[in-house]
UniProtKB/TrEMBL annotation:
Protein name per UniProt: Ribonuclease HII
EC numbers, comma separated: 3.1.26.4
Similarity-based family: Belongs to the RNase HII family.
RNase H type-2 domain boundaries: 2-190
Chemical reaction(s) catalysed: Endonucleolytic cleavage to 5'-phosphomonoester
Residue ranges of coiled coil: none
Source organism: Spectribacter hydrogenoxidans
Gene name per UniProt: rnhB
Amino acid sequence: MARTAGVDEAGRGPLAGPVVAAAVILPDGEFAGLADSKTLSESARRRLAGEIRIRAVAWALAVVSPGDIDRLNILQATMLGMQQAVARLAPQPGLVLVDGNRCPALVLPARAIVGGDASEPAISAASILAKVARDQLMVTLDEVHPGYGFAQHKGYPTAAHRAALERLGPCIAHRQSFAPVRRAMAARTALTGDRTLR
């Protein structure tokens, strides 16, 4: 029987860090606790991510760097990540369900579902894996680039993050094509004449 994969991403809105896509084929039967990752606590997401990795028929992740986001734009970077995650599934699914209103270019049949991360268990599972993986990457980036608070806000444009951007200027983990980062870079260059990223 052809399997169905769910696909979702995490990290479209942040000013820093990668976008992470996940694809998951769930086993037949009930998988309790799955929901849109944004509605779950961090501890619940981490617990469920561990269960998904163990119980899934297949799962895969793809990470698209800030540099590729700047080169492609965030929408195309997200589509690329989804393509890569699906391509890494073994076995390959017969149908791909994608959260949102558009599908990446795939060789497999695919359907976009608005709100699918809340209504389709396989998409919920992908949402959880992508969110947990991205959060872990941002904690690592916090160690590499201290002072920005990446471990706390995960690169999203919080007041604390914006203040750190103004104080420190952007680092190489920031998405230079995003307007707040461009403004911070311009302000730093105007003050110091230095365009080097930390």
